[in-house]
Task: structure prediction
Amino acid sequence: MTVDSAIQHWQEQIKGALAEGKRLRIRGAGSKDFLGEVGAFDEDINTQSHQGIIEYAPTELVMTVRAGTPLATVKAVLAEQRQYWPCDPPTFGGAGTVGGAIAAGVSGPGRVAHGAVRDLVLGVGMINGAGQALKFGGQVMKNVAGYDVSRLMSGSFGTLGLITDVSFKVLPLPEAEVTVVRSETLEQAHERFLQISRLPLPCSASAWFEGASYLRFSGSNAGVEDARQTIGGDVVIADIWSQIRDHQLDAFAAAKTVWRISVPPGSQAMLSQCSLLEWSGAQRWLLDPDIDPRSTLSEGHATLFRAPVTDQTQRFQPLSAVVGGIHKRLKHQFDPQGIFNPGRLYQEI
Amino acid sequence: MILSRDQLKVRLQAICDGHSVADQARMKVYESDGLTAKKQLPWLVLLPATIEQVQSIMQLCHAHQVPVVARGAGTGLSGGAMPHHEGVLLSLARFNRILEVDQVNLLARVEPGVTNLAISDHVRPLGLFYAPDPSSQIACTIGGNVAENSGGVHCLKYGLTVHNVRKLVMISPEGERYELGSEAFDSAGYDLLALMHGSEGMLGIVVEVTVKLLPVPVEVAVLLAAFTDVGQAAEAVGQIIDHGLIPAGLEMMDKLAIQAAEAFVHADYPLDAAAILICELDGSSVEIEQQQALLTQVLQGAGAVQVRCAKDAEERRKLWLGRKAAFPAVGRLAPDYYCMDGTIPRRELASVLRSIADFSQIHGLPVANVFHAGDGNLHPLILYDANQPGELERAEAFGADILRLCIERGGTITGEHGVGVEKINEMCVQFSAGELSVFHGVKAAFDAQGGLNPGKAVPTLQRCAEFGAMHVHRGQEKFPELERF
Ligand SMILES: Cc1cc2nc3c(=O)[nH]c(=O)nc-3n(C[C@H](O)[C@H](O)[C@H](O)COP(=O)(O)OP(=O)(O)OC[C@H]3O[C@@H](n4cnc5c(N)ncnc54)[C@H](O)[C@@H]3O)c2cc1C
Result:
């Protein structure tokens, strides 16, 4: 399908849905079907057939792709030019599309150094709830014309519209990269991660699980070697980071419920209970906790990331009244009849 | 209870304990921002100092449908803080305290009227800094930086304001307090924190900002490369990135800008160069040494006739000073200058520069060029004399030509200075009616009554119809059949 015909096809489906009062579930590879609320829908609108790189000029550090493009394709094409997409979104079950990665806004281990998905989004093409095809942002690094709708789409779980194509910032692959491991307790690792974040070292990822901490340094040969010597530890050859990112660690396989706790890195909240600590301490994963972590969490927020469908617990942290009101009004502006992914993020939107 | 305008004025002044300005002569300092061609006196200037005062002001103004325009330092370059003739100009200047520095989580919580530079100055003894550094950093406020999503000369590596702010405390047009973002790296729901950046005071009043701090790099090197041809300098930028180098800063100045800066601050720039690149590297000592060697090689390969590395901190300061003082320096060459702010894909730099030179001939006005070259963000400075009949109009027509060219080349009409009142017509060129309607929808979701900064940033569809602009489709859409595979 050419760009225009795919968009026209969807516009027709959307207009049909509007006429018949149908609700649509936007879906890419379905790798994150488990994430968020189930929501209510009558039919799928699938982006997987809408694939391909629309534009990529490596010296611009920008790639523009169709929403259904697999993350694996993006990674491979970038790697050919010795570049990468530093936010490194997860590919659960090995799958995942760019559109889904943007809509879910989930970032990988590299988030600490080079930013989250939302930090790298430069522009989107989308279809709103009235069936209009629109473009926001663009292919340049700096752009303040109009409100930043492209970043707003990141993490909106398809509730504001169908993303048709995306432009994002990419970076040159680091010249060198090394991961070091050390056996230590969670508390020791946490303390050390915090110390390292205060040093001007090219630390690009940090994680602790099962009694060992892992630190990744990325940058120039000299800078990485410098950091390795300063920090010490044994060099790891295996690709531990994609296992962490995609929740392939053994403990995750056995878990029924997976909670994601997002707190300031130095926070003590849920520290002792967490099975995986990431992002210098700012991202914590709890497996099968006895009580709802939200009942004691006084800062940050908690997401019930994975749970049996029968679990009625609200997936995302409830919003304050004022912010919830803004959400409802924004949803209404983008999708007045509420046809896109209703209830996937919050009941009211 | 509904008050008369005079009663309302008394009430509003009382809220601020008399920190207000109402007489015409004293209000003159507030009549424009850095875009001095657009002037307007407000009805009343208020200078609150507490969040509760801002809430009371907003509640009263909302109830009486009085427009409110927020103002930081007034250094904006698009008229964003230009007052409304029937409205309150809400100055955040007295919100000037740094409230807290969190050395564990590397955050600073500050009031919106704190200047950009004050944050870095405050945390430098701790070995930390706040990365975005607009050239106006000694004066501009962090609240204004959020409202414009300001950039600086170090944005290539460290990002814009939106990448360096964690949390905002906001006051709604109705006077309600709410928070966006958090001390954690993200928060639940829509990314309203991102949406607030660059929203030009249209969606809410920023009353507190929590920024991210970074450890000061061990070493810094600043290189200056001189070229005899502007096109070569532009090509060099792409080649640097092609070699996998992301400098902390990568700036370019053309001949007129070089000469003006040299005359103004004696930065020791080569006066015979057609263009210079200023390039900063940071990292560990060994790292810098390696990168500097590679960078020098790339620059020479690209045709640089001179590559010089600053020997010490003083020389580095001087090289940056010339760049940071470029606007006022160019300002000395003519009675007035008009600063543009388009962004283009980097590969278009050389050809866009040639077109700007042609426009300069056509409109009969000189232009000096300063860019954030690494980001493709252009700042052509058009020189004119507002006292000469027709010159302002010519300068504006010249500027409009540049902006249209930026859109045609796949870029945007504003990279960091905002739309304000200045580029409102060009918004009709860059966006379709449907897209503009979405912007109005966003505005309505935050400010249903439209009392915040009315008439700015997003044109009405009616205005676009009158302006008669055509929506030019972006370059990327012209050849959809040309796929990479
Ligand atoms: C010499 C010079 C050099 C410059 N260099 C740069 C540069 O390198 N990079 C760059 O990005 N910009 C630059 N600028 C532009 C300007 O400094 C920035 O846009 C700056 O962020 C404006 O801050 P301010 O405090 O002066 O805001 P103001 O001009 O007072 O206001 C700007 C906008 O923000 C809104 N606003 C201000 N405070 C608040 C608040 N608390 N809550 C809600 N809305 C608010 C206003 O309503 C207005 O719309 C330069 C300007 C000058 C004069």
Chain A touches chain B through 95 residues (CB under 8 Å). The two ends of chain A are 32 Å apart (CA to CA). Residues B 33-34, 69-77, 80-81, 92, 112, 134-136, 140-141, 143-145, 147-148, 150-152, 200-201, 205-206, 327, 416-417, 453 surround flavin-adenine dinucleotide (CB under 6 Å).
